[in-house]
Fold this protein.
Amino acid sequence: MKVATVNYAAPRGWNATLPVTLDSPQTLVLAFAAPEFDQRPAPFDELVAAFPRSLLVGCSTSGEIAGAQVNDATVSVAIARFEHTQLRRAFTFVTNAADSYDAGARLAKQLAGPDLCAVFVLCDGLSVNGTPLVDSLARHLPPGVPVTGGLAGDGSRFGHTWVLDRQQPEAQRICAVGFYGRRLQVGSGCDGGWSDFGPERRITRSEGNVLFELDGKPALDLYKSYLGERADGLPGSALLFPLSVRRSGGAGETLVRTILGIDEAARSLTFAGDMPQGGVARLMRTSNDHLIESASRAMANAVAGVATDAPSLVVSVSCVGRRLVLGERTEEEIETVFDGVPPGSGHVGFYSYGEISPALAGGASQLHNQTMTITVFSEC
């Protein structure tokens, strides 16, 4: 395969000539863009004109990853032409979070076909419950097909996210790309670097990704009491203090969940993924060094899943909450990932409202929050 990366910023335009010779039906064009480009879609029109036979997919971000850099107000693009792998693109409209499971089934039906070996998915970050979406994809796709990707972002504003529908930025969309063939290798890595603190709280009332009560008390009130003066910045300030969630029944797997919105009237919190009623929740915290070290581990695990040093497409999806914690050290997280990118490869990605990846190599794909997830696509 051959991979090239380019970057767009106004008013300078593209930082390099678009590599039009890579255009083909087996070419994937990934475009991760600042949210405001839904009002200035010229870069997407230019990509379609330069790569008319290729598959263009992308979404809004909370920061664009390009090589070893993190940018704002740009479009970060990777063009990857596969030699032995076929591609298929699927779209669906999602009415609200309750439609997420059915949306996964619709996508899986569109992607069904022999030799399907991987799926990369991008979805609206505010209208989708990532847990049933990923569960549905896993249930309706052939066993062992990894699903990676993420939820579109909008910084800490939580106002408007979008996914490219062909070249048009649209809300309430999910786009997935299926990869078909026997010579594609896909490695994935996922690591968080967060730790629990404070008392455990029982989830006494929830519906899907909406949390109403912890220990029989309104969830929003309890959470605000923890945040103190930071509560005035909700929902954005919640990115600094996610919750760990464990289903009832003992020491099961713990997932990290980030708040996407609040409802003052219902005293509830809306998360990117399910909050299982009867489960246990606990506050989390981290340090800059722990986040950077976790990104390095995620990269090492992703590369270990690909038995080749050939040029690869490397896609990083990290959580906006990590960026807010890291602040001026954000690029250190990306630099430690870029240090592990195979020679001749292209590296792009974005800061998200949720990350989709197997937690462990060969394991089931899940929705994560506050993690660094990395997918490596390579051909042998």
Q: What stands out?
A: The chain has a mean pLDDT of 94.
